[in-house]
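Database export, one record per block. Field names are fixed; values are copied verbatim from the stored entry.
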Amino acid sequence: MKSNVLSRYRVMAYVTAVWLLVFTVAIIAKYAFETGDTMLISQIHGVLFIIYVIFAFDLGSKAKWPFPKLLWVLAAGCIPVASFFVEPKITREIRPLITDGSAATAEA
């Protein structure tokens, strides 16, 4: 597996998690304080989540994950702050599977 597959997943996991937190704060502000509109934030998060799903599915298929594990990783993009805990665990698991030599160079 190439390192860019893991890198794409990692970037999208963090970006999606941050936008989900922004969206959560916007929803709370909208309904608790009756301020603002969440349409733009929700659309941005929706597009980013679709990209996250594609990259997570790509990583999972190349790592040959069982379906329940893939579902757990995908669900992490739906739960605020879950990606911040799931992504490091997935990264530790996937790093030994990287074969293009960039992992050995980065660790040296």
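Remark 1: The two ends are 19 Å apart (CA to CA).
Remark 2: Residues 3-33 form the longest helix (31 residues).
End of record.
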